[in-house]
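Q: Sequence in, structure out?
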Amino acid sequence: MAFAIGIAAGVAAALCWGVSDFVAKIAIGRLGKHGDVKALFWARLAGMLLMLAGLLCAGFDAQAAIAWLPALALIGLLDFAGAYSFYRGLSKGGVSVVGPVASSYAALAAAIGVALLGEPFSGMRASGIGLTLLGVALASSSPLASRKKTGGLAGGVPEALFTILCWGVVWTLVAAWSPSAGWMLPVLAVRVVSVAGCAAAGRLGGFKVALAAAPLAAIAALAGILDAAAASIAMWALSQKELVSIVVPITSAFPAVAVVLGVFVLKEKMGWRQALGVLAIIVGVMAISA
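A: Exactly. Output:
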């Protein structure tokens, strides 16, 4: 029974995260100027409301939440920086490349976990980190025709690389603190901070971040709901020791969903090096999570 639940949870999380990236790409493109900030605002607002409702239904210790505010604020700020950079990357490049490169934060999180938290360093994990790094190098390369203009990197990749730094640290902190703080508070906190961050960016930039046609706001909100659902499933699985080894490797394959949708639905093109790199990233991240 646990095996079946683990398989179902892993597949659900992978589908939700992969489709979320795909939907976010569509929303960003259709929202026009400042589409990355507007899409992130509506996505995180929808995710925040979903998580807030879940937290209220499940019940939580308000005093404990207050005690964790500094840690939650740190996680929220790092996640917002990574999420904004990721959405910025999606506004410049294809989801079939930007998504897998950004997902390589798992390699950084694994390295930090081994170096600072004393996590075991197996041959499988070492191979996964190496394969992921190789994949990032291959997937990040731009076509020869545009290499002079892009500095050798595909569109959106510099932003995806910054996302790796932010999310690698975020997931390391969440893994370290969630046994004490619970898994729902961090998932909610990052969305609260992102909503506030997007609102601040809109004010500083002189535009209304919430100004969007209802259908476009709904598309962005769908991306946020799927993202929150995937994060909830993944965090719940991490709290269930008997499911971790089943759910996490399956969930880590989510970039493959975005790649398939990007290539076959959005008609994005990849060179053979990028295709090999994306495949290496997916296999490498799965090896790290195994």
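DSSP finds 14 helices and no strands in the chain.
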